[in-house]
Amino acid sequence: MEDILVPIFICVVLPVMIVWLVTRAKQNETNKKAEIMLKAIENGAAVDMEQFQTKKPVKSIKQDLLEKLNGACITSFMGVAFLVLWVIDQYGSGLPNGFFLKEMLPVAGGVMLAVGIGLFISYFVGKKMLAKEIEAEEKALQQ
Q: Which of 37, 82, 130, 135 is deepest in the core (most CB within 10 A)?
């Protein structure tokens, strides 16, 4: 019975609970803002609508490119590590018998390496294409 219930709770109940909690937190935040706004209107105070809007931090082009480079390094390294583990298993001393899904190592390694290479390409192309915009942002920040 435990073999059936644990995967169901992990794969079904846990994600549903996470979504429900996040949705409930956002709804509570919206209700609190609305309550504050109604109290301010009832008291005749001026309501600043910008105060209630959530502002997302603006990322610069350079920050976006650095995040792509960071992701490319991580996924490429993981892909290479998976492939190295697979080579060690095939041609070396082998991995322990309890090693989880060692048949999937070449597939996972290939996928991770492909994503990493794609992110590297995206980083270098973006860096080349957006060089003028990056310079303009840096000049604007210096002033």
A: 82
